[in-house]
Specification:
single chain, mainly alpha, 0% strand
Length: 148
């Protein structure tokens, strides 16, 4: 579950964030959408969504995974999610921010850093899970630091 939450958190980097209507000028909406699509393609957001779903499936009992993945493939509208991702990106980020992200994520160093996120994420998630487990066990065994 923690891996799923971390994956959702990382994905939300692209999908979530408030922006006021005043920051979006009507004359740059087309440019924002075009840049958002370029950024979306460079960051392989659809692949990230699939990876998140596959990660979630790993937490389902082995015997149910195949049915789960088949059901997800039939019921989730990936085109809709892709369009929402592009729209959210265009709404949230400014033109200069998207240009900077495209320059970074489109560069060899940016692509390398992104690829290493698949190594970093599980490592830190494992450590976070260990700490949470230790804290829960401490409370269960009566070693509650809040009671000292």
């Amino acid at each position: 579950m923690l891996k799923y939450l971390i994956a959702v958190f990382l994905l939300s980097f692209v999908l979530v964030g408030p922006v006021s209507a005043e920051t979006v000028k009507s004359d740059d909406v087309k440019e924002r959408l075009a840049l958002a699509k370029d950024l979306h393609d460079i960051r392989h957001i659809r692949d990230a969504i699939h990876a998140d779903i596959e990660g979630y499936a790993q937490q389902i009992p082995q015997g149910d995974r195949e049915d789960f993945m088949r059901y997800v493939a039939l019921k989730i509208n990936f085109d809709k999610l892709e369009q929402l991702s592009i729209a959210y990106t265009a709404d949230i980020y400014t033109v200069p921010e998207m240009r900077a992200m495209i320059a970074y994520y489109g560069s060899p160093d940016g692509q390398s850093a992104e690829a290493k996120g698949a190594i970093y994420g599980p490592k830190i998630a494992k450590d976070v899970q260990k700490e949470i487990d230790a804290a829960v066990m401490s409370v269960k065994l009566g070693d509650d630091p809040t009671q000292q």
